[in-house]
Amino acid sequence: MIGPNPNIKHPIPMHTRVGFLKGLVTAPNIEIGDFTYYDDPDGPDKFAERCVLHHYPFIGDRLIIGKFCAIAEGARFIMNGANHAMSGFSTYPFNIFGHGWEEGFDPATWSKELRGDTVLGNDVWIGMEAVILPGVTIGHGAIVAAKSVVTHDVPPYAIVAGNAAKVVKMRFDDRTIWRLLAAAWWDWPVEKISRNLNAIRGADISLLEAAV
User: Fold this and answer.
1) What would the pLDDT profile of 5-28 be if each residue is shown by its tens digit?
2) Which of 66, 104, 120, 208: CA 20 to 30 A from 32?
3) 10 counts as catalytic
């Protein structure tokens, strides 16, 4: 077994709503790892346009998504271009409309609202219609429940839910999480992953460590 080609756009021929994003997204400010997929009944081809919002190259922020992530229909990544200056009395972006309204605008009042890159680790599951706000980091193995609004970083192997999303459960105890992060199976060669699927999708950490 060698597994599917991560560069194939539609890896399930009879189920074209699922697509490996690495072969579908060409935007230079979006990085996506092997085997990460998006599932949408209208097709995954427009992931960058539909799901990654307010992402303007001149801002410089990146959306970085790891390997083996599962992203459900309607998930949204709100990027830094959505932010407004908040240091004055009004948050209205007068300057973008020009005709004299841009005069006197201090770009620093807007740039200080930037939150940096948005980062998903490996093996992350994003539920249907979840919203990820700018600058958030979601740790390896985390799960974001459907319709959650993620405003802060999510620890590895946490399950978060709600608006604003909060940790409702850790998937494993601290010791097991440490061992999982050390094993980092997602960085193994695909041939090794294919040989050890039972250990990866099982729940015996010793068996997984034996394959490292």
Assistant:
1) 888 888 888 888 999 999 899 999
2) 208
3) no
